[in-house]
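Below is a filled-in request sheet from our internal design queue. Each sheet records the structural input a requester submitted and the sequence that came back. We keep these sheets so that new team members can see what a complete request looks like end to end.

REQUESTER: design group, bay 2
PRIORITY: normal
MODE: inverse folding
CHAIN LENGTH: 279
BACKBONE (tokenized):
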């Protein structure tokens, strides 16, 4: 009975997760040897919508089921040699749901990028590999992450057409089993993004971010119904550079409900990133 309870609880937690992957963050241009890069990302949202598979529509969650989420994501990277970068991602999250609350590390990431091609007046193409480890607490309630070991790979394409910059990105996450022996569904993600450069200190961007999560499987290998998810978000924002190397990036994340399905989600989300990008 305890095993069945844990399995059901894990399914509900997985279905409720609405995560965006840092795998494809940044453009395809890589750093030169010996350079460091750093980032702090802050976000706030409320998980307030649930998907009704019977009527195939999103409905408002009751107040007791809504979850306030505050996130802080730390990233530090280094280029051991030209075109090769290694990065560590440490996400921290706070969740509040009715009388429950949790705070702490999410699952940590290690990521590496290598520039395959690119240069002056040429498009850039970069490969990326990512690994995620279960560093979040298994006792947290609400859960802070899915506590699986994951492996991912992707490609980043960037082409400058002044005053615009085009970004095309795609990645695939192979997600393994969690503590309840649930095989978490793999994830495909894609990004289409356009930057518009007004000045050297200011530009705007529009980002379309798609994440498709495959259905999870139980400990016997059977597919768990209604655990697949589709997320298409539109993300407008601006980038302000008050001094060389410093990038301030406020953004607004809006889910397109006519496309999205499965699990629970937010109605809107705000973020603010602070990047240090070396020249």
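RETURNED SEQUENCE:
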């Amino acid at each position: 009975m305890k095993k069945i309870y844990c399995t059901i609880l894990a399914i509900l937690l997985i279905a409720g997760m609405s995560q965006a992957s840092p795998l494809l963050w940044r453009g395809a241009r890589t750093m030169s040897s010996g350079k460091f890069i750093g980032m702090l990302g802050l976000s706030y949202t409320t998980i307030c919508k649930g998907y009704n598979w019977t009527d195939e529509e999103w409905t408002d969650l009751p107040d007791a089921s809504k979850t306030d989420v505050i996130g802080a994501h730390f990233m530090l990277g280094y280029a051991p040699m030209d075109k090769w970068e290694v990065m560590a991602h440490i996400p921290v999250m706070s969740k509040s749901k009715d009388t429950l609350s949790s705070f702490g590390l999410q699952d940590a990431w290690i990521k590496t990028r290598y520039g395959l091609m690119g240069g002056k007046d040429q498009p850039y193409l970069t490969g990326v590999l990512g690994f995620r480890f279960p560093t979040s607490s298994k006792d947290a309630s609400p859960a802070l992450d899915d506590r699986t070991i994951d492996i991912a790979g992707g490609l980043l394409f960037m082409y400058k057409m002044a005053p615009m910059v085009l970004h095309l990105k795609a990645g695939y996450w192979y997600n393994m089993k969690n503590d309840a022996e649930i095989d978490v569904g793999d994830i495909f993600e894609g990004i289409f993004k356009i930057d518009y450069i007004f000045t050297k200190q200011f530009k705007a961007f529009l980002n379309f971010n798609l994440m498709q999560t495959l259905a999870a499987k139980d400990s016997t290998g059977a597919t768990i119904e209604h655990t697949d998810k589709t997320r298409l978000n539109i993300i407008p924002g601006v980038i302000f550079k008050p001094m060389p190397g410093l990038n301030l990036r406020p953004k607004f994340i809006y889910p397109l409900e006519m496309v999205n399905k499965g699990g629970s989600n937010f109605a809107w989300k705000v973020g603010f990133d602070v990047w240090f990008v070396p020249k």
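SHEET NOTES:
- The CA atoms of residues 84 and 197 lie 27 Å apart.
- The chain has one helix and 14 strands.
FILED BY: M.R.
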